[in-house]
Description:
This protein has helices at residues 5-18, 28-66, 73-78, 82-96, 104-113, 115-132, and strands spanning 22-25, 71-72, 135-138. The radius of gyration is 21 Å and the shape is elongated. A 3-stranded antiparallel sheet has the order 2-1-3. It folds into 2 domains: 1-24 and 69-135, no CATH class; 27-67. By secondary structure, it is mostly helical.
Amino acid sequence: MPIRVNDMMQLLGYVSEKREIRAAIKHSGRGALVAGATAFVGGLVGGPPGIAVGGAVGGLIGCWMTAGQFKPVPQIILELTPREKRRLYDSACAIVRDLDWTDMAQLTALVMANAAIQERLLAMLVTYLTNELKAEIQYGK
């Protein structure tokens, strides 16, 4: 039986919620933009020394901006683009394809009763978040 993308995202969210996994997405592009912009403005205002001061101040502001706030993984999953959700969906389906189930409730029950499958789904999800979204992961349990 085929699984809908949103149903799989809910399953992944449920599994990650049980382990209280949170992630902070780093916005390094925004931080770099701020650092560059303040260095540019510093250069316009103060010449070469202004570039150094502006770059240092911008670097500190950029660092503060990229620290990120930890959010529950289910919330991050909901905020993914359709393309990102599809990539997660494909990876998760490869993990649960050998299970025998008839509806989403039964699949969820099977996954929650099988620690090995939960670990495989969580490992896939954490790998995706860290490699693709450059997230920092925080574990609750």
